[in-house]
Design a protein that fits this description.
Number of helices: 19
CATH architecture of the largest domain: 3-Layer(aba) Sandwich
Radius of gyration: 26 Å
Distance between the termini: 40 Å
Structural class: alpha/beta
Largest sheet: 8 strands, mixed
Number of domains: 3
CATH topology of the largest domain: Rossmann fold
Strand order of the largest sheet: 6-5-4-1-3-2-14-7
Helix content: 25-40%
Strand content: 15-25%
Oligomer: single chain
Amino acid sequence: MKDFTILIGGKAGDGIDRASVIIGQILSHLGYYVYIHRDYPSLIRGGHTFSIIRASENKVSAHRDEIDILIALNLETLNLHRKNLKEKCFYIYDAEQIKFEDQVCGIGIPINSILKEENAPDLMRNSCLIGAFCKTSGIEWEIVEKTLGMTIPKHLELNLKIAKRGFDTSRQLLKIEKINREPLPLLTGNEAIGLGLIMAGLDAYAGYPMTPSSGLLHFLASVAPEFNLKVIHAENEISVIMMALGFAYAGKKAAVGTSGGGFCLMNEGLSLSGMAELPVVIVLGQRTGPSTGLPTYTGQTELFYAIHAGHGEFSRLVVAPGDCEQAFYWSALALALAWKYQIPAIILSDKTLAESLYSFDFEKASKVNLPKIIMWENGDSYKRYLNTKNGISPLSFVPKYSAVIKVNSYEHDEYGITTEEPETTKLMQEKRLRKSQFLLDEIEKNYECVKIYGNVESEIAVLCWGSNVPVCIESATRLGLKVIQPVIIHPFPLRQLEYAMIGVKELVLVECNATGQMAELIKHHRFTVKTKILKYNGRPFSVNDLEQLLQVVIDEYIKP
């Protein structure tokens, strides 16, 4: 098998997530590219949860519906996903919970009996099934032993014993061949964002846990000693954004993470960043809303909110990476550009990007050329808000013996002294907004802000952004279509979009919201989307369902 899918499912609390990661790492060790999609309810215990693990000899970053191997910890998993099983498939199940007889493609493991005999806790059921999966797939025990040793920090010996019992109880039904390729690390989008921020010089991170950005807080806390980071779990999102601005005043690069509800609370701090010209990066993990919505599911609902949030008018940067490598690259660049232009930068993520696992290829992430910060060189009396051609004032940080460094949330003059004088107000407002044009000129000149994939000669183009990019690339490329991805959402890279649109006669939007927000955005730039393929039930597109929907568009286009 060169491209296959494994689904493992059970109830929340069964350890499905960890089991899927271990299986993914085993397949990565065999040389496969891996992508893992996670689906779980907002419950600690109970409810159905599952992970789809896709492995391929080629780079993959989206899931398919058809299942080659089903690993079921309960009957619900088998019943819910049986319809997606391929004709040639096999399934591994808990024989003491699921009464099912199929000697050809079904492997029943007496898990509870094994756990009882070994005096092991119920959570180790998945270790037993992992062992059974590996035997069934022809994967050598030494690989299982090595992978478990690297991934299970507690009770390793007992977990290995349980996995070996599952291995020995099963039988081989196929052979997953090893590929001659060095294994790649598996990273979530949150982890890639965190590493990108660190690469760009992150000093501090503050957050209040809110799915799907919580993983970023946990990841940075786990690596804080290694990278000398200050990581703070604050009492609420208002404290989070204000802490970050305090760090910036002291010259420390800071980022924060949240979801829609927490971002609401940050809006006054966001506007303070715009007025005081204090740089900050905000990682905004979107989900299906409004209000609490579906806390553990995905959506692309905050595009307009990210562009327009806050009161007053001020410059900002909004980026929307599409996969793990882009998350690393554009997070680093967002931090660097926020500091060069002294503005807030927003990284739009969502549950699909933030919590899915990807084989991370550092070479494909591209080298990030970070722009330099403009610093004050101890000249004449320091003007924190010096009015310059591009609106960027040279920076200096406290404590500084030779300078008074005053920041202000009120309108102010070049020294930071509060003013209500009309001419100064006009001058400073124009200074702050001038950054947007210089930022736009820089990004369009130096960076690929609008990416093009697939058949560049196609008259039909798929427009997408964020986590929909990988599934659009795979589906549209199979059908011979062009794919256009704006990575920078604001300031909008119109010149690059105009170039990408050359030869396009039919533009199809693929988006995970109910209103087609990207279509509304590009309408302001004189582009019209004729067809919208929208999904807003909290679940991402699969390659299969998007291919079918795009085929309908193609059939309509070529109809005489």
